[in-house]
Amino acid sequence: MQRFKREKLILLFFGIFTPFFLTDSKVNASSFGAEIFCTMRDGGNDHESSWEAAYTYIKKQKGGIFKVSPIRAASQITETVIRESEKFRYCVKYLDNLHPNRKLERDLQKEEKRKEKELEETEEMFTDEIIDRYSY
Predict the structure, then answer these.
(1) pLDDT over 90, % of the chain
(2) C-alpha–C-alpha distance, residues 56 and 73, integer Å
(3) Residue 26 confidence (pLDDT) above 70
């Protein structure tokens, strides 16, 4: 009985972890993800739609419990384009959109929060005041 439980546990372990070791889906997913991104961009599509299509494909092909982060997917596409530069020569000009200026994004978000706070303070100032149209 003890032997049966141990064998069952070993089979369960191999059943769970074998796909992680046997498949090379990460390389294939990032390669085809790069192909999707570059082909769509070269075809005249905007960055957002091309990125969403490539990222969705990479996420679905990864499999497993954990999904690929957008930053990691962008890095995989960049690595593939650089590694296969002959195949993706036309795509190098689009790579800068995959890695936006993070400092600029943070500054824009801070500015947006500051404006929202000012707007809230202004609204509070007017809501606290009771305006009587007959008080001259």
Answers:
(1) 21
(2) 10
(3) no
